[in-house]
């Protein structure tokens, strides 16, 4: 059975998934790049972004790699696509990741403003959904054709899907940094009441990896030697 997943969403020790004041110069907010010291050096990240195998292996790479296994479609909040607010001023902006984004699957972007699809290299096509999280999930499931749907973020998008009990597994990587302000993930959520429990808890040198699973989910997540 296909799952709805969050993989590799990184939090600071004080619970923020991005720093404050996100803009084109600070896509992760001020100080937000500190969060991903566990991810950027990994072989998976280096391969997906730069096409080389020179990255690190080990626990962090295993979690990064499993985040791409069996993913048939993605859902992103608008901030994950670009810094533009309000109506789309033009069609020039095609996402943070350049001509060949790392998704390699259909991507459904939540927005209040319609826009034509954007087809990119490597099999990524961005579709812009104005009907909310349920419409995006319905379309993503259809596009995934039996594979999993990965919710890529940001924090507000993940929080909406958690509140509705629509996420089956949630992997967060807790980075040993403090941001002080930013985009909090769990504000206003009672995860225990929503049916989530801790399934995996393992630390590397650069992050603590926690996997939460919604009770009643009958499909286990991919295994790694860290589990």
Automatic annotation (TrEMBL):
Signal peptide bounds: none
Record GO biological process: riboflavin biosynthetic process
Q: Cite the Pfam families for this sequence.
A: RibD_C
Give residue ranges for domain Bacterial bifunctional deaminase-reductase C-terminal: 9-200
An annotated Gene Ontology molecular function: 5-amino-6-(5-phosphoribosylamino)uracil reductase activity
Origin superkingdom:
Bacteria
**Chain segments annotated as coiled-coil in the UniProt record:** none
The family database entries (InterPro entries) matched by this protein are listed as: DHFR-like_dom_sf (IPR024072), RibDG_C (IPR002734), Riboflavin_Biosynth_HTPR (IPR050765)
- What is this protein's name? Deaminase/reductase
């Amino acid at each position: 059975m296909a799952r709805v997943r969050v993989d590799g969403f990184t939090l600071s020790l004080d619970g923020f998934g991005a720093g404050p004041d996100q803009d084109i110069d600070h896509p992760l907010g001020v100080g937000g790049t500190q969060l991903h010291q566990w991810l950027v050096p990994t072989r998976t990240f280096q391969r997906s972004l730069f096409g080389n195998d020179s990255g690190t292996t080990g626990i962090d790479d295993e979690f990064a790699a499993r985040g791409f296994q069996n993913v048939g479609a993605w859902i992103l909040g608008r901030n994950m696509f670009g810094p533009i607010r309000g109506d789309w001023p033009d069609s020039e902006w095609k996402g943070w990741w350049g001509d060949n984004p790392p998704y390699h699957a259909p991507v459904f972007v939540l927005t209040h403003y319609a826009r034509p699809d954007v087809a990119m290299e490597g099999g990524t096509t961005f579709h812009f959904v104005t009907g909310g999280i349920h419409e995006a999930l319905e379309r993503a499931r259809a596009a995934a054709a039996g594979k999993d749907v990965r919710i890529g973020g940001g924090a507000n998008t993940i929080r909406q899907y958690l509140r509705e009990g629509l996420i089956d597994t949630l992997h967060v990587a807790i980075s040993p940094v403090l941001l002080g302000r930013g985009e909090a993930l769990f504000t206003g959520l009672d995860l225990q009441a929503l049916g989530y429990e801790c399934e995996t808890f393992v630390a590397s040198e650069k992050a603590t990896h926690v996997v939460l699973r919604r009770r009643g989910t009958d499909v286990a997540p991919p295994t790694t030697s860290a589990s």
